DNA sequence: AATACTTCCAACCGCTGCAAT
DNA sequence: CATTGCAGCGGTTGGAAGTAT
């Protein structure tokens, strides 16, 4: 068994001898502590964090030092409020990555996972909640009409040929957001079955209003030609989600077409992409068959270049 | 001015993954 | 193969600061 985390606990060679107890500090960092850590890091660089804490003369655990450095002291940190562009990026990446804050942060230079997480939980989540509550979910049981499902990110439409029974099994603790799931499943079904209609107005809309991030940009439509995103099957694709996450949803949605498309989709993934498999226990939302592909930064920036509120240009 | 309430964010906590032994 | 220790991650919390009454 692992020893319990010593962070924040008394360090002592003998629990009966209080004279040897060195109390580790907790709570807010003083300017003096910041100074010590900053100087140590700048002159010695990052090493073992418990050594950093000791050598810098800080009565903090290494974990605490690491967090302070990463979230506050790092020289490359961008301070201040998030710009609208950054906000859009966060929303976009969250729709693709879910609560993988560190991965989102890696795509936003100068921002930390903690910062983004806080921003999401305090600001964006609230806004999305408001926008979704202002919309009226369609509760009709029609087998012909596309189904609409309300999520924290707004109202989503499901093609009529796809079952939505797995939605009730959705695990809120999953690192994949419901919106991410829908984006992926919709994208896959679209790739496979051009007969499935989805009007532009019914398209996935993260705001539940008029801002749509998912109309296919020219740049992404073109990508299919180089084998990265599966073939262009000759349809007017209104929705095309890049393979940041490749989800095998066929079993759960009960769509043979999706099953086939998923194979095509998987095969067409860029071989250089790192793909990891998250183990699970049979519940889809707990990770079974969930495969996550990662992009490099350039790929992601190419992906976000179509966001309407942004003015991103890739420099060759 | 005083109090209650809300928001925001820095830091903590518990957990997992991984490498070393 | 089991154990250990560390790094890193995401969820949660405590409290300072701001706002409303």
Automatic annotation (TrEMBL):
GO terms for biological process: positive regulation of DNA-templated transcription; regulation of secondary cell wall biogenesis. It is found in: Nucleus. It comes from Daucus carota subsp. sativus (Carrot). Keywords: Activator, DNA-binding, Nucleus, Repeat, Transcription, Transcription regulation. GO terms for cellular component: nucleus. GO terms for molecular function: double-stranded DNA binding; sequence-specific DNA binding. This is Uncharacterized protein. Pfam families: Myb_DNA-binding (PF00249). It comes from the Eukaryota. Transmembrane segments: none annotated. InterPro entries: Homeodomain-like_sf, Myb_dom, Plant_SW-associated_TFs, SANT/Myb. CDD domains: SANT (cd00167). Gene3D superfamilies: Homeodomain-like (1.10.10.60).
């Amino acid at each position: 068994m692992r020893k319990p985390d010593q962070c924040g606990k008394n360090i002592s060679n003998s629990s009966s001898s209080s004279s040897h107890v060195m109390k580790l500090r907790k709570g807010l960092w003083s300017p003096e502590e910041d100074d010590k850590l900053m100087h140590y890091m700048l002159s010695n660089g990052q090493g073992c964090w418990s050594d950093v804490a000791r050598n810098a003369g800080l009565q903090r655990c290494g974990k605490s030092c690491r967090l302070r450095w990463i979230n506050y002291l790092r020289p490359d940190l961008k301070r201040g409020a998030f710009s609208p562009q950054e906000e859009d990026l966060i929303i976009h990446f969250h729709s693709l990555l879910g609560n993988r804050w560190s991965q989102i942060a890696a795509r936003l230079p100068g921002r930390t996972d903690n910062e983004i997480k806080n921003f999401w939980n305090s600001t964006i989540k609230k806004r999305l909640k408001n926008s979704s509550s202002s919309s009226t979910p369609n509760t009709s049981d029609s087998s012909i009409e596309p189904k609409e499902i309300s999520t924290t990110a707004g109202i989503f439409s499901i093609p009529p040929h796809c079952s939505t029974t797995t939605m009730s099994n959705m695990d809120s603790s999953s690192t994949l957001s419901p919106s991410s799931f829908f984006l992926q499943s919709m994208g896959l079904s679209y790739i496979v079955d051009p007969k499935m209609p989805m009007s532009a107005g019914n398209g996935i809309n993260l705001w539940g209003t008029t801002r749509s991030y998912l109309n296919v940009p020219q740049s992404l439509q073109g990508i299919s030609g180089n084998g990265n995103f599966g073939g262009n099957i000759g349809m007017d694709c209104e929705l095309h989600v890049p393979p940041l996450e490749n989800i095998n949803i066929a079993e759960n949605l009960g769509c043979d077409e999706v099953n086939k498309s998923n194979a095509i989709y998987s095969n067409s993934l860029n071989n250089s992409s790192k793909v990891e498999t998250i183990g699970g226990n049979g519940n889809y939302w707990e990770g079974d068959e969930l495969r996550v592909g990662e992009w490099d930064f350039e790929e992601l920036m190419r992906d976000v270049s179509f966001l309407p509120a942004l003015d991103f240009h890739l420099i060759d």
